Amino acid sequence: MATFGSLSDRLTQTFSALRTKGKLSPADVDKTVREIRRALLDADVALTVVKDFTATVRERALGDEVSRALNPAQQVVQIVNEELVTILGGQQRRLEFAKNPPTVIMLAGLQGAGKTTLAGKLAKWLKAQGHTPLLVAADLQRPNAVTQLQVVGEQAGAAVFAPEPGNGVGDPVRVAKDAIVHARSRQHDVVIVDTAGRLGVDAELMKQAAGIRTAVDPDEVLFVIDAMIGQDAVSTALAFQEGVDFTGVVLSKLDGDARGGAALSVASVTGRPIMFASTGEGLDDFEPFHPDRMASRILD
Ligand code: GDP
Predict the structure, then answer these.
(1) What is the pTM of this model?
(2) Residue nearest to atom 2 of ligand 1 (CA)
(3) How far apart are CA 138 and CA 145, in angstroms?
(4) What ligand 1 atom has the least distance to the C-alpha of 256?
(5) Ligand 1 center–CA 186 separation, angstroms
(6) Does the predicted interface ipTM exceed a cut of 0.85?
(7) Cα(289)–Cα(20) distance, rounded to whole angstroms?
(8) How far, CA to CA in Å, does 87 sit from each of 133, 155, 265, 267?
(9) Atom of ligand 1 nearest to the CA of 285
């Protein structure tokens, strides 16, 4: 994955230097931890996350599990792997489906984060599993957004609910509510609500998103974050957590060559799991997120 390429290279270098050693001295551990710390910071992982991470790795690396290990260096790599899985959210978290359909999934995030594209990706993925998703155009800020969702819906082979001219135009809460009624009458078992984003976090946008959340009581609120956004990832995520209390994170644009570490901090800082990863513009460039697989890729 291009995004974590340089972090991955740096960690690999650190570990290969370690592997030439038999027993590890406390000085070896400290040097290794310092290098890991620098690699994570250079990859834009948030400072608080780096501090906790390196403190835990150091404590474990100086402990019994390493001194008793047949291959101490390998044991340190194993510890780093386990702790990476932890900051990435631990266990994989799957979508929660409602007992009484439709399951409502709301998408939130900044403009350009990849929400509309994600709506299409999710719809296609859900359809392949036998679901009958309905896409809802509740992004009424951008003139193109409704058309863009219609295009994506067509590509995914999913129905799109958009406001009729003159009927609720400009009122995304009303559109979202009407869409749920429509979904029930047409046997759609999943409703995916695309919401408006702005270039920066702003109070009005957050109020609107919160209004939609209250009106449709979603089973999942997915916060979509562009892996390229760098250090702003953490503050943006915290603002959306406060504003819409999302249930899961979607990392998008992991195919880019950004350093990616900020996006890695989001699960740890918000305590919400990363549920999906988007890796391109095409509707198939998308996969459920597995913390353990991602950690292995980074340490590969
Ligand atoms: P929205 O404003 O949040 O709805 O964002 P869009 O879905 O319109 O996406 C903004 C731009 O990013 C579009 O040009 C998408 O094609 C592109 N995009 C979305 N997801 C990805 C991704 O995972 N990788 C790449 N490279 N581009 C993406």
Answers:
(1) 0.92
(2) 112
(3) 9
(4) 26
(5) 29
(6) yes
(7) 34
(8) 32, 35, 7, 7
(9) 23
